Amino acid sequence: MDVVVIETRPLGDRSYLVHDGQVALVIDPQRDTDRVEAAAAEANVRITHVAETHLHNDYLTGGLILARAHGAAYLVNGADAVEFERVEMADGGTVQVGRLTVKAVATPGHTHHHLSYVVTDGREQAVFSGGSLLYGSVGRTDLVNDGDTEQLTHAQYSSVRRLAAEARPDAALYPTHGFGSFCSSGPASGVYGSTIGEQQGTNHAFTDPDEEHFVRELINNLTAYPSYYAHMAPANRRGPDAADLAVPESLDPDELTHRLADGEWVVDLRHRVAFASSHLQGSVSFEYGRGSSFTAYLGWVLPWNRQLTLVGARDDVEKAIRDLSRIGIDSPDAAIGTEPSALAPGTAVAHYPLVGWAELEHGRAAGDVVLDVRRTDEYDGGHVAGAVNIPLHELLGRMAEIPDGRVWVHCATGYRSGVAASLLQRAGRDVVHVDAKYGALEV
User: Fold this and answer.
1) Residue 322 and residue 320: Cα distance in Å, rounded?
2) Are 41 and 120 in contact (CB under 8 A)?
3) What strand order describes the sheet that includes 265-268?
4) Tens digit of each residue's pLDDT (9 = 90 or more) over 340-367
5) Given this model, what pLDDT does residue 443 score?
6) How far is CA 193 from the centre of its chain?
7) Which residue, among 25, 160, 198, has the nearest Cα to 102 in the 3D structure?
8) 245 CB-near residues (< 8 Å, 6+ apart)
9) I want to staple 155 with a disulfide (CB 3.0 to 4.6 A). Which of 109, 244, 394, 412 is the partner?
10) Do residues 423 and 284 make contact, with C-beta atoms less than 8 angstroms apart?
């Protein structure tokens, strides 16, 4: 048995190609299925089965797309109300994938109908746990319905024990979530791999002997998650179609100027430092880059289902189109280039100061507004005295709450405050971006 990991770092998720050298099972593929196709071609195997551990809340699945393209069996829990044909799986159900035996194990908690899969070749075992057992923690339990959260958290506590009983301690563990995904909860670990036995000795879902304590602690530590999640599970129930990943022709300068003048959403992908120094007036900053959380925050902050225009280098635009397609933001337009004044000569070029913590003291002394755009739980854990807290994902709807005057905006690293500074300036506020790590501040 070989397991090929297909990682989606911007969303903190992994998909898997599991094969015996001839035929393969794909688990939890994302919508841009060409990555799975490439992995299968490199391994020289045929995709005969595709499996979902659950109806995903954080991305659009590529499962139906893959299954139809390959004539593969599509394994989905029979209890999930979907609008497409699938092979209905249930607890204890097994399928044969070449020399691999795949067994479904009911592991409710992340969702009501969550399944994990135990795969064996007769010698080795691998467990594909989706959003159930993660490295160091478990999947969050509040994504289905607020009224179901406590019940699902109890179920999650029981499910990890049930899953461990179905596999050997040396079975390799392959979760879908937990690598920066908002679908994880608790102290999820950043390790690359683990086993069932290792998790039994270290994961708080196993080591906490008091189920009620575990439930209270997990629920109390759940934080905000992106608003676009509300659109993912319904779309996955319908069955997403293939994404168009082509880069469109660059907008001509007059059209880009017109869109900015009309208040459309024009997203600048350059680094936040470059944006602060020079950008098209009315554009907003969502820096694209490795580890930037671009997809999650853009989908969370901007109004859903509005036309977007991406501005930046062609390579960044191409990657951003792929990333956005994973959460159902399709067909953005683009203006290719990194020099604002050349992209839309009819639009003013704007800027704002970018400073560190030392300069913030001048603003505080002058009585300016300090705006902290971290989550509420981060703010409650420590903050600049007198700072106003409006989390970034709430900022567009709460602009009126920010006191008059110059606004000095910060977050934990500079990324979220870069987005916030651009939104504030777009709304007509005088803004200073404090681009510094909160951990370096002496409050």
Assistant:
1) 5
2) no
3) 284-285, 265-268, 308-312, 333-336
4) 999 999 899 999 999 999 999 999 999 9
5) 52
6) 20
7) 25
8) 32, 34, 318, 321, 322, 325
9) 109
10) yes
Q: In the prediction, which pLDDT does 189 show?
A: 59
How many angstroms separate the Cα of 283 from the Cα of each of 91, 234, 309, 340, 426? 50, 31, 9, 10, 7
Confidence of residue 186 (pLDDT cuts 50, 70, 90): low
Q: What is the pLDDT of residue 185?
A: 80
Please state, as a whole number, how many other Cβ atoms lie within 10 Å of the Cβ of residue 151: 16
% of the chain surpassing 70 pLDDT: 98
pLDDT above 90 covers a percentage of the chain that reads 93
Backbone phi, then psi, for 70, in 5-degree steps?
Answer: -110, 0
Minimal CA–CA distance to 275: which of 58, 433, 74, 87?
A: 433
The rounded distance, in Å, linking the Cα atoms of 418 and 145 is 32
pLDDT of residue 292: 72
Are 170 and 138 contacting, i.e. CB atoms less than 8 angstroms apart?
A: no
What is the model's pLDDT at position 293?
87
Paired tokens of 47: 């995709």
Q: Are 408 and 370 in contact (CB under 8 A)?
A: yes
